[in-house]
Design a protein that fits this description.
TIM Barrel, 8-stranded parallel β-barrel, 11 helices, about 15% strand, globular
């Protein structure tokens, strides 16, 4: 089965937050994305609420529950107590844990699973008890030792950081090298019993090669490139283009 597409709404929220006005509507564009075939919606509510606001989460939860009950809500973030409380109140189908500093502009590295295995094990257990699938952000070239540690946390999935691959858009040789790393890490994860998600700087142009390198890719979460395309093609047509690029 092709990878499912989760549309990350952070860039939409960032644009909205430039003014003290309710547009562009985060939930409105989320609805358009789901109507066009997106399999889910993703947000990353940071402590300073510079893009997704905490108040957006119950609205997105209600949108999915009321209009698209077969779709999923994915909430990602660093597992502070406030974040965990927010997630438990929202009850997303999936929680993606990232090792970000709150001041980072965006996620740019995966967890050191070996060092953080005990901390992550406790957090994963808490989230799974609340009914969420748990995915852990992972470096594209993680070692077997790291993957074994990721599995031992009790997580269901890893999300491969595809930023270096996306950043090689103008260098085919580098892109091929990054794909090889991603494919090897994905294989290690599958062999360990972990499903594989991917996200960061993915586009209509680079998705097919990624899907070919990771045949069992479960889900991609895409925000920046998708939102950029939506300015040109509109949200609905952009989602259809990305869904097709995933192989549907």
């Amino acid at each position: 089965m092709p990878a499912k597409l989760s549309v990350n709404l952070n860039a939409v929220a960032l644009l909205r937050n430039r003014r003290d006005l309710p547009w562009p509507s985060v939930t409105g564009l989320g609805r358009i994305a789901l109507e066009a075939g997106a399999h889910g919606l993703t947000v990353h509510p940071r402590p300073d609420q510079r893009h997704t606001r905490f108040s957006d989460l119950p609205e997105i939860r209600a949108l999915i529950d009321d209009e698209f009950p077969d779709r999923e809500f994915n909430v990602e973030g660093y597992p502070t107590q406030d974040f965990l409380d927010l997630v438990e109140a929202t009850e997303p189908e999936q929680v993606t844990l990232v090792p970000d500093d709150p001041e980072q502009p965006t996620s740019d590295h995966g967890w050191d699973f070996v060092t953080n295995v005990d901390i992550l094990h406790a957090i994963v257990a808490r989230l799974r008890k609340n009914g969420a699938r748990v995915s852990l952000f992972c470096d594209p070239d993680a070692s077997e030792e790291q993957i074994v540690a990721a599995k031992s946390t009790g997580a269901d999935r890893i999300e491969l950081y595809t930023g270096p691959y996306g950043g090689a858009y103008d260098d085919p040789a580098k892109a091929a090298n990054e794909l090889e790393k991603l494919g090897k890490t994905a294989l290690l994860a599958n062999q360990a019993g972990l499903d594989v998600n991917a996200g960061h700087d993915l586009t209509v142009a680079n998705l097919p090669a990624l899907a070919k390198s990771i045949p069992n890719l479960a889900e991609v979460s895409i925000g920046h490139g998708l939102t950029a395309d939506a300015l040109e093609y509109g949200m609905a047509e952009t989602v259809r283009r990305f869904v097709k690029a995933c192989g549907w």
